[in-house]
Design goal:
The chain is of the alpha+beta class. The chain is built from six helices and five strands. The longest helix has 24 residues.
């Protein structure tokens, strides 16, 4: 799914009449969890979650986390995104993943491994991009690459329609 497609998705398009009870209950639980994550996100992220798109791109070395304002002519959101990503980069490099832990829970997939990374095992580069910023995560440790991928998957699941996975050819 691409960035443009994600912006135009309508969650009501899911056909409920073809779901069994278990699938319906899972969908309801997922929606409730996403609402809770969004609420806790306000404690950590200074920008408006609904005004942004979070893109996650997995690769062989780790991946890229990009946050962009939906409205590129909103300089306040862009500034808040950039400040936040610069701050969390510094925290992550120190092994401080308290932000994601607060938003997503202590048992968020991948976080235990990422917190235990030794200095130099995880490189995180920050970069301004059009309408926001991104962080590129790299590691030569297979366990950390797998942890990053699990973490990205959890981010995608927990943030629902404001998060998309992008695939690179």
């Amino acid at each position: 799914i691409g960035f443009a497609q994600a912006q135009n998705m309508d969650p009501s398009m899911t056909e409920h009449s073809q779901m069994d009870h278990t699938a319906h209950m899972k969908m309801m639980a997922d929606a409730q969890h996403q609402a809770e994550v969004s609420q806790r996100g306000k404690d950590v992220m200074p920008f408006s979650l609904p005004a942004t798109i979070h893109v996650f791109i997995k690769n062989a070395e780790g991946g890229v986390q990009r946050v962009v304002a939906k409205n590129s002519s909103d300089p306040a959101q862009v500034k808040l995104i950039r400040q936040h990503l610069q701050e969390i980069r510094e925290q992550f490099l120190k092994g401080d993943f308290s932000g994601p832990s607060h938003i997503h829970g202590q048992d968020m997939p991948g976080l235990v491994e990422l917190k235990e990374a030794k200095p130099g095992q995880l490189d995180i580069a920050y970069e301004d991009v059009k309408s926001g910023a991104q962080m590129t995560y790299k590691s030569k440790e297979a366990t950390l690459v797998a942890a990053l991928h699990k973490w990205f998957d959890a981010e995608l699941s927990d943030h629902g329609k404001v998060a998309v996975e992008e695939h690179k050819p």
